[in-house]
Amino acid sequence: MSDDTPRDSAESAGDGAADQAEGRTSNREDGREPPYRIHAQYVKDFSLENPKAPECFMDPLVRQVRPQLEVDVTTRALGDRLVEVLLQANVTGRIEPDTERERTAYLIELSYGAAVEIGNVPKDAIDPLLRVEIPRLLFPYVRQIVSTATQDSGHNLLMLPTIDFLGLYRWKQREGQIDSATADQVADEQPRAESAGAPSTSQAS
């Protein structure tokens, strides 16, 4: 999904999951089960292509690279209310795009994941939680990896724009592109027994 995907303001459908996630701190304080736990965050797959180096660095137009961003979110049920959420970001830097002289300066493909345990939340909140709230938490790490990669490849440092994951989720709903199989499976599974002393969330340092 490109960054041209229609986006809506964040105000109704899907907000229930975000509200529950935002309440995870207060839930811990009053002893209630938090809506989710992140057990691990990790780079699932990563590739960087710099096909025109080093010749491209002699081209004055290399500093006018126009990046094109595509993002997507996928989920995979792991059993026992555990889900792998993958935030996929593909960035293509092009020189003189939309012309006969168009050429690719760099190509970055990143799949960044989290293993998430879903707590006792309503069934209709599971999909928005997995496809909106969790990607929001993962995105800063994706942005950092992409920024470092562009700089290390000799190009201008690229800071990805903020992604409206709620707008992306709603757009995919309207287009019939949401596969709720993961949410359905999680809803049919019993919440895991809380391990003594288990942390509520874990964030990458």
List the helices and strands and how they pair.
Layout: H1 15-22, H2 24-29, E1 36-49, E2 66-79, E3 82-95, E4 103-118, H3 123-152, H4 165-174, H5 181-188
Antiparallel strand pairs: 1-4, 2-3, 3-4
Helix pairs in contact: 1-3, 3-4, 3-5
Q: Can you describe what's shown?
A:
This protein is of the alpha+beta class. The protein has helices spanning 15-22, 24-29, 123-152, 165-174, 181-188, and strands at 36-49, 66-79, 82-95, 103-118. Strands 1-4-3-2 form a four-stranded antiparallel β-sheet. A hairpin with a 7-residue loop joins strand 3 (82-95) and strand 4 (103-118). The longest helix has 30 residues, at 123-152. The two termini are 28 Å apart. 31% of the residues are buried.
Short key terms for the protein model shown above:
about 200 residues; alpha+beta; four-stranded antiparallel beta sheet; 5 helices; 4 strands
